[in-house]
Amino acid sequence: MTSNTVSGLLALLGIDQSHSRPRVSNDNPYSEAQFKTLKYCPAFPGTFGSVDDANVFCDQFFRYYNNEHRHSGIGMHTPASVHDGSAAEIHARRAATLNAAFLAHPERFHGRRPCPPPLPSRVWINKPPTTQEVDPSPQTTQVA
């Protein structure tokens, strides 16, 4: 994308060029991460015979990825369960099952009560470095 023709067309269309990927404000990190996950999937064929072949593969892949695959970054839940709100109920059932197992056989757990992975309050692709929290309380000012 260094030719004058492409650069000129992008400028004419009001499209900003970005050659840097990570932590770029006008980039879509979720889309980039999803594309990388798709590309490195063991079932990914590398090339497709047709657009229809690509559509069939992607339809199957995204259905599995969103509805069946448990993600470590979201407490071993599926994206669908987090999105539709059922993850909290699933988390509670997991906790109850682990608690029942602990009560039935505490010796299996070396005295430590098991608990399911917590649901995150925020999800990151590239977590920013932690910074000091700023006091969110509103400041009052005198109006004359």
TrEMBL record:
Polar residues bias (residue ranges): 128-144
UniProt-annotated stretches for the region Disordered: 125-144
Chain ranges of the Integrase catalytic domain: 14-79
GO molecular function: nucleic acid binding
Pfam family, one: rve_3
A GO BP entry: DNA integration
Protein name: Integrase catalytic domain-containing protein
Native source organism of the sequence: Streptosporangium album
